[in-house]
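Teaching note: in complex prediction, the entire set of molecules is handled at once rather than each chain in isolation. The prompt given to students was simply: 'Predict the structure of this complex.' The entities are:
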Amino acid sequence: MLIKVSVAAAVASVAAMALPAVAAADATDDYPIPNRILKTTCTVDQYMAAVRDVEPIYYERYIIDYNNRPPDIQQGARDRIYWFFSLDYAGRRQYSEDTATNVYYEQMATHWGNWAKLFFNNKGVAAHGTDVCATYPPDDPSVWNG
Amino acid sequence: MQIAPVATPRTEAITAATTPITAPFNAQITTVEDVAGIDQGSRRRGSQTNRAVHWLSTGLSAQAKFLPLVAVVAAAVALAAPVHADPDVDFANELHTYGIYGGKDYNAWIGKITCKRLYNGLDKDADMSAKFVFQQLQKGSTTAQAWQFLGAALRTYCPDKLPVLEQAAPQ
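The expected output is the structure of the full assembly:
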């Protein structure tokens, strides 16, 4: 009897170890893209202008990285983030799912791994930026000048 | 891991060269070219070790080979700045007198960004700069501390922008 129970427990524990790995790559409403970014109604320019004011060092690091990329990669990153912000919540959530489950989904990332760092990588920055982004002008290309 | 097989025979090769009597086994590796050959045999083709060994095996004299290295070391020693010449340290020390603490590098970068924002017109006057600085200070900081930070930042990192403080004073 004791042996049977032990074997059953062992089988159960093996199954418990094996199963979660299957589902580990799924996106959540906060990962890999922060919830605030999925839901914000701000434009790219508004969000960047806000982060420039409230998280200046994070912004500065991103812009330095951006400026170290060739012009075609810079343009590609800009086009891609404007495209992402043109999506509604459902579209952004689907994109989040696609990038979480397929590492090759986002082609931009193969050219510049941190191409969207200012937007996707830090929940605190996303929260602070989206808190105030609506107070900035919707169109302000100077946000890319650093 | 990969250096070991290179370094050991090389040491032995030098020993072998100076005491040829003990050489029969080690005599297979007697030149730097041989050592380079070992490295080429590994997976890391074109490694720094490889290139360095080739450089050492060129026909230059020992003096010519090491002269650049000597020059670089001499320059590094000569140019090493005194410890207290770091403006970030002076800036941090001044901030401490205002009761502003936090990371030295963080505060220094905020100071430099404050200057940059005045140069590129993002902040048009000292009031805007002080507002920007205030947002970056720890919670509970006072506006007076923001202005003290601003004054220290301008003096330390962009003294040519100090007039913006004077322009703000009469207001």
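Point out the following to students. Chain A has a mean pLDDT of 89. The CA atoms of residues 42 and 74 of chain A lie 21 Å apart.
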